[in-house]
């Protein structure tokens, strides 16, 4: 007698490796720099709004997320029917691949890039086409355009790229979009958009308005500091947004997540002040690393990337000894979030002593 068997592709799904919590060390404050979390607590007023919402936990969430859609539409000056919300931007990536790919269809993305991409693609039975990033950690958009075939349904552009750090410029994205067939969906994953300070930053909203095949995915987990509530949003032409809503999990975004996101949008000016403080810390860290002889890529997210190859595990262990936990990618490198100033100081201390 045989037991029930999942689809063959399920066995091929790579595991998602979450950032480790910090090691508890007596007499030392440890810091988690492994998950690109915002080190600041929620904005004033957000906790109070959530506490009120908790009193309604016996009721289902608003499945249509109507108040959140209205606030997003007002904030970014887009029609509400051009929006879709989900459990973080990663939830939207899963939904996009599910909605637009049949088994065997191809999804093109840079590599290394966001770890969830090959997971979402494999879960849908589609095929990952990984295009190596350039030596400086940037997307090789020419190579990605060349990788598009008759079987390509989706292209994922992560900007800034997680975990390497560089952001795509508007000129680069425009040139890339001119090469991609209009029937191929181009996902501009802007999970870290608030941290970008490049000379030619992508204007995602303007770009989607010019193209019928472009969708933006964004999240409240990073700059907004709502990682624990899992809420992200997509901005896309109406037919694409409708497809995302059609495959979304009913009641997927909880009441408290919706309320927290709305309250955070209402305090966006305060949020951006905090983002500026994190960007200033990022600059201090990058400058300090380069002064110590490290050749780190351009950092446009809230993290820095160390290309370490076979020394990656040793680097992660040395960081742990200093009370900071980083995110190692075995045999490739380590990503380190920008955290509290003391945590960043310890990273610079590590950079001083660890062999380059």
Give a structural overview.
The protein has 12 helices and 12 strands. It is α/β, with parallel strands linked by helices. Helix 1 (46-54) runs antiparallel to helix 9 (255-266), helix 3 (88-100) packs parallel to helix 4 and helix 10 packs parallel to helix 12. The longest helix is centred in the last third of the chain and has 24 residues, at 268-291. The protein starts with 30 loop residues before the first strand and ends with a helix. Keywords: Aminotransferase, Pyridoxal phosphate, Transferase. GO terms for molecular function: histidinol-phosphate transaminase activity. Aminotransferase that catalyzes the conversion of aromatic amino acids and 2-oxoglutarate into corresponding aromatic oxo acids and L-glutamate.
